[in-house]
Amino acid sequence: MTGVLNAGGPRYDGPGPDAGNRPPSPPPRRLLGEPTKGSARWVLALAMFGAIMATSLSLNGVLASFSWWPPSAVVVAATLLPAALLRRWPVLAPFAPVGAMAGWFLGLTIVFFPATAILGFLPTPGTVEAAVELAAEAATVITTGAAPVPAVSAMSFLVAAGLGFVALVIDTVALTLAVPAASALGLVLVMLPPALTTTDGIGGWGLACSAAGFLLILGCSRWYAPGGKLRTGGSVHPSGTLSRAVALGTVVVLLMAAVPVAIPGFSKGAFPQGTRLGQGSGATQLDPMIALGVDLRAQSDSVAVTYLSSTSTAQYLRLNTLEDFTGKAWQPSALPDGLKAGVTGLAPVPAVPSTLPRTRDLTWISTIGLQSSWLPTPLSPTSIENLDGSWVWNPSTQTIKAKSSSTLGQSYVVNSEMPVLSRDLLAAATRNAGADVDPIYTQLPKDVPKILRTTAAEAAGSLQSPYAKAVALQDYLRSGLFSYSLDTPVEEGYDGSGMKVLASFLQKKSGYCVHFSAAMAVMSRELGIPSRIAVGYAPGASTDESRMRNGRQLRGFQATGLDAHAWPELYFAGVGWVPFEPTPSRGSVPDYSLELSAPAPNDGGPTAPVVEENPVQSASATPSTAAAAAGSTAGATHASQWLLVPGTTLLVLFLLGAPALARVLVRRRRLAQVRDGNGSTVVDTDIDTDTVADADAAIEAVADAAVDIAGTPSLVAWRELLATATDYGCPADRSLTPALNAARIAQLTGPAASGALDLLLHSYERAVYGRSELSAGAGLSGNGREDLAEALETLIARIQTRATPWQRLRATLVPASFFTRAPGRRGSPEMAAPK
After folding, report:
1. Do 411 and 386 form a contact (C-beta atoms < 8 A)?
2. Same domain, yes or no: 570 and 607
3. Do both 231 and 305 map to the same domain?
4. Is residue 17, in this structure, part of any structural domain at all?
5. Torsion over CA of 762, 768, 769 and 774, rounded to 10 degrees?
6. Sign of CA dihedral 254, 258, 263, 269
7. How many domains does the chain have?
C-alpha cells in the first residue's frame, strides 16, 4: 500500500475502514500551486521602485522642497509589495493588480490619514472624506499658484497618490500584461509636470534618471520575467539584453543632451522646453495666491508693468483679492453667477457714499511683461478704455477677470475715483461694518491659535474705534520687532498663510508680505473689522516718461517682478475698503495712517498735548533706542536659533555615533599594539619568585609591581577577540576557562578559522599562566606579533562574514562591548572578560 506524504499535512494510505469517505482535501499550499522560487519578483519590484523614485527627482522644480519624497516612497513601496507577494503563487498571480491597488490605498491611509482609519491602516468613510478635502486643497494650490509650489501636506498627498498610481500602472503593464516597454508611459506621466510648468524643464539629471529607470525596468523584465512569466530557481544566464539596453540608452541620453545645444529650436520659439503651459515666452506670471512667497523668489528685475498716472506718486496695482480663509490658506472667492462682460460704468458693492470727497485719477497701463487672467488696476476703477478681449467686473471685490483673453501685451486706460481719506474721516467710522459686507470678510475658523488672539488684543490695548485698532496693528507689524525676509520662509514649510504658519510668524517675527498682510487681516477680523488681502504690485519706480491725455499731465512709473506684493484692505462703515501697509521696508505707509505730531506751544504758555488713539509710533518716525535694542536682540536671538539647530543636530548625531566611532578606534589601536607592540611594557624579571606559590600569584605580583601585563600583544589580541564576540552576541563567560570561551567563539568563526583561534588561545594562556614565560619575560616584551595580528584579523572577518545583516548592523552601530566594563584587577586571569 503506497502512501502519499503531503508536506505539512497527514499521510493518506488509501481505502481503509473509512473507505466510503472522501479523501482529505489537499492543503492550501497545493491549492495555490507550487510557490515560485527565486528572487525574480523582488528584483523586479525593486527595479520598478528605483525607476519611479529616481524619475520623481525631476519634480524638484515643481515643489519648493523635498519633504514630499519620503511619504511618496512609502506609498510606492506599499503599492508594489502586495503584487510581489501574490506572484509567489501562480493561482494568485493574475490578481497582482488588485493587490497593488489595495496596497496603494493602504499606503495612502497609513501615511496621510491614520487618525481616520481602523487600526491606523484600514480606510473608513471618514478617510475618503479627508482625502477628498486634501485633494481639493491641492487643486486650489495648483490653480492659484505657479511652480515651484509649496510642498504642503495637500501637495505631498497629491504627489504620493500620483506616484503610487504610476507604480500600479507600471507593475500591471510590465508583468501582468507582459509589455515592459509600455512602462515608459508611466514614467512620462511623472515627467509631464516639470516639463510643462517649470522654466527649467526636466533638466539633464531628471532625463538621465528617467532613462536609467526605464532601461532598468526593461532589462530586468527581459532577464527575470521574459514573456511576463517569472523565472524560477536555478541559474539565470545573461542574455546580453541589459548590457545592450544600457549602451543604447547612454547614447540616446548623450544625443538628447547635445541636440538642444546644436539646434536652437529646442530652447527658443513659441513653446520651448520648460515654458509654462499657456504662457508666452519671457512673460512674468503673478498668481493671485497666498503662497506668493514662491512667486516672489522666482521673480526677476525685468519690467512687468509700465504706467502713466495723473498722480504725483506711484500707485498700488491690484490683480485680485483673497477673502476666503479656511484656516489653511487664503484664496479668492468664486465669481458670482450672472456677471456680464463689460468694463464701463463700474461701481463697487457696497457702494461708497456719494457725499464723500473724492479724487479722480487717470492711469494708462501697459502690461508689457505680465501674463495673467486678472487685470491690474488701481483701487476703485470706474471704467476701462482700449482693453482687448472679453472681461467681467466683480463689484464685490473690485477686480476684473478675463473670459477669453490675457493681460499680455495690453495697453489700456483706467479711470478711477478714490475717496479722499483722512484720519478724521476714518476715526469717525465707528459703526460696526460687519452688516455692510458679505460674511466671508469676517469669518474665521474655530481653531484660531491663542497667540493670534492675544497679540491682536495687546496691540489694540484699550482703543475703541476700528480705525485706531487698525493703525495699532499696522504699526506693531512695522515696528523694529519684525524683519522682512524672503529666505526665512524657505525653512520648515514656512511658506503659506495658514493658522500654524501665522502663529509661527508671530513667534519668529520674520517673513515676507504674505505673512504680514495675512497676520493683519486675521487679527483685524479678531477685532471685528472686515478684511481681505489684495495681491498685485507695490508702487514701483518713476521713469522719465511723461505724456498729456485729456488735458492732464501723466507721469511715468514702472513695476518689475520684484515689486510683486500683497497687502491688507480693511472695510470701514460709510467709507469703504481702505488699504494698509504692515510690511516693513516694502511699499509706502498711507498718509491717513501716520501719526500726527502734537501742536507746538503758543505764546501764552504750555498747553496740554492732544490725546489721540494712535498707540504705536509710525513707520516714518525714527525708531527709538528701545525699539532698536529690541530689534537687535531679536536679530541676535534669530541668529542664535540658526546656530542652535545645526549645532543640536550635530551633537545628537555625534552622541548616536559615538559608540560606533569609539569601537572602530579601539579595534584599530589594539591591532596596532598587537602588530608593532606599541603601548606594551617590558616586564621587570627581577622579582623574588620564592614567595610566589603559583602562576596566578606570579601574575598578581607583577601587577603589584606596577608592570602592565595587559599591554602585551597576546593579551591585547585576546581582549579584542572577546570584544568582537561580545558585539556579535557571544559575551565572555567569566565562569569558564579561556579554552571553553574559545570553544564558544568557534561557533561564530566556523571550523575554517580553527588554526587562528588556537594560536590566539595558546598565546594568551602562555602569557597569563606560563611561569617560565614570566620569569624570562617572553611574550611580555615590547616586540610586536605579526602572526597574532593576522590571526586576529582573520577571526574578525570570519565572524563578520558568518553573521546576519542585522547582526552586522547592530554590532557596528551599537557595539555591546562598548557598554561592558571589564572587572578584576589588572594582570588577573579575569582579563578574559572584554574591556
Report:
1. yes
2. yes
3. no
4. no
5. 110
6. positive
7. 3
- Judged by DSSP in three states, 256 sits in helix
Place of cell 472686515: 530
**pLDDT > 60? residue 471:** yes
| 601 and 735 belong to one structural domain | no
Are 690 and 583 in a shared domain? no
What are the tens digits of pLDDT across the range 774-808? Answer: 434 444 445 788 888 888 888 998 888 888 888 88
For the stretch 308-341, pLDDT in tens is 999 988 899 999 998 988 776 777 877 787 888 8
Q: Is 746 exposed, middle or buried (0-12, 13-18, 19+ CB in 10 A)?
A: middle
Q: What average pLDDT score do residues 547-570 get? A: 91
Domain finish residue from 631, 658, 681: 631
What is the tally of helices (H) and strands (E) in the chain?
Answer: 23, 18
Domain boundary among 238, 253, 274: 238
With CA atoms as reference, report the closest residue to 391 among 436, 441, 335, 438.
Answer: 335
Does residue 144 surpass a pLDDT of 60?
no
* pLDDT tens readout for residues 224-262: 877 677 766 544 445 555 555 556 556 655 655 555 554
Question: Is residue 627 domain-shared with residue 751, that is, in the same domain?
Answer: no
Query: What secondary structure does DSSP assign to 504-529, as a single string?
Result: HHHHH-EE-HHHHHHHHHHHHHHTT-
Dihedral sign of CA atoms 585, 586, 588, 592 in order: negative
Grid cell for residue 45: 519590484
Residue whose entry in the numeric block shows the C-alpha cell 488509501: 14
Instruction: Please name every residue paired with 363 in a beta bridge, in sequence order, or none if there are none.
Output: 309, 414
Phi-psi region of 243 (alpha: psi -120 to 50; beta: other; left: phi over 0): alpha
pTM score, whole prediction: 0.49
